[in-house]
Amino acid sequence: MARLKRLVLPGQPHHVIVRGNNRQAVFVTDEDYRFYLEKLVELCERYRCAIHAYVLMTNHVHLLVTPDTKDGLGRLMQGMGRYYVRYFNHCYRRTGALWEGRFKSAPVDSERYLLTCYRYIELNPVRAAMVEHPAQYPWSSYRSNGLGEDDPVVIPHPLFQALGQGDKERQVAYKALFDRAIDPKDEAEIRWNTAKSWAIGDTRFKEQIEQATARAASPRPRGGRRRGAAKQ
Prior knowledge:
GO terms for molecular function: DNA binding; transposase activity. The chain has one domain (14-209): Transposase IS200-like (Alpha-Beta Plaits), CATH 3.30.70.1290. 42% of the residues lie in helices and 11% in strands. It has nine helices and four strands. The protein has helices at residues 30-47, 72-91, 110-122, 124-127, 142-145, 158-161, 167-177, 184-196, 203-213; strands spanning 14-19, 49-56, 60-67, 104-107. Strands 2-3-1-4 form a four-stranded antiparallel β-sheet, with helices on both faces.
């Protein structure tokens, strides 16, 4: 069966996941994390992509990124893969693949899921029992989005900026979002659709994507008649 064309919509946020091959560690020292983030800033500028939220875990990466062009996201992730693999293999005297095949990505319905995706990404270290609060984890966008720390990686999305009139007001509103847990259904929607490269959003959003891309944005029901249907 032919592989579906990746769903990429210029100007739309996308949730992106890339994992280490066989779940192996892709970050070992603080310098590894810093190198990845520095290169991410450089390539986002080159390929016209904006990162709104991110987390670098030991063996995988989550990004919430809006590309300006149709090929921007693919070029960004391909470039990151090449540069980082070269760096990592040199540092640790290894050869071969580092990442687990293609990166996973899904366009995100801004109105319904954008801020939930922010939280989903930045809560990864909490779900992994690495920290009790996202502010305690140094390799994510939470300290920028929630605490106002300078982070050259992060470019706020307009819906994030709409949380308040100024930085302080936005930070208070953003931190308040973390006072409640993410709805398990929303969490499952984000996880499953990203893994399968389907759109994250409601029916209206998915229909709009299908009209714009001529590509299915969600799985179709299996064809054929159910057993026993002829007897009804």
